Amino acid sequence: MAQSIPLPVWPGDAAVCVSLTFDVDAESAQLRHGSDVLTKMTTMSAARYGPVRGIPRILELLDSRSIPATFYVPGDTALRHPAAVRSIAIAGHEIGHHGFLHLHDDQAELAGQREEIDRGLGALIELTGSAPRGYRSPGWELTEDVFDLLVKSGFDWDSSCMGDDRPYLEESGDASLLELPVHWSLDDVPYYAWSRAAGGQMCDPDTLTATWLAEFDSAVAERRHVTYTMHPEFVGRGYRVAELARMVDEMRSRAAVWFASHGQVAELIRAGGPAGVELPARQPP
To answer: Rounded CA gap, 105 and 170, in Å?
Structure first.
């Protein structure tokens, strides 16, 4: 179930709020299939490209445009690529929880779901010194059990569901959590991902940009928030990062934009909490 909430006024009276988010899956997205994938050197190297080449390019772009972003990081990625993940935090960007081994929530029993949450938390806290406040379900299939674990663990928001194109309250049973919604059309995977095993398609970057700018124009007209989701192993190619930079510049030429991390959006909604709307109280972790 979903409960709508009125949106706050964006800082600087911006017409729209945009969040650029990045899922740093790296090898975890492959390892969830089993350890046999470790023998596939090409597959594993392609996954490793994200932290090695994609993240530095993305950080350079964000710095050049003074844009804060949210990076959702599996615990396995934090352990395998500590320097890359630290570089995200050092640059001032936000790190969110993205499981441990990118195990899809709906493909694990409750014990496995709890382990994914706990191990992911432990790895991120050890690396960054603080607990992530937001969660994104690997594979975007949040379950009621995981939702309950998130609420009990004290998360401030989730970014896995698609019940609205504005921030809203996602509800399960008696529990609710601020939802910063996503959508497949606003994810780079349908446009850029391809593998020998899974197939897929690779579109010209112009196709992605045209779709994402159309969503941006819609968000401007409605003065709402929109989240874009990217993966460093896909969007991190040089020509794709250049296209992302052109898209950001085009957004700024079309409207007054507040680029914000998910944490900044959650804080504004909570602090500016429209009259008559009671957000879920923070739970102690």
So the answer is: 17
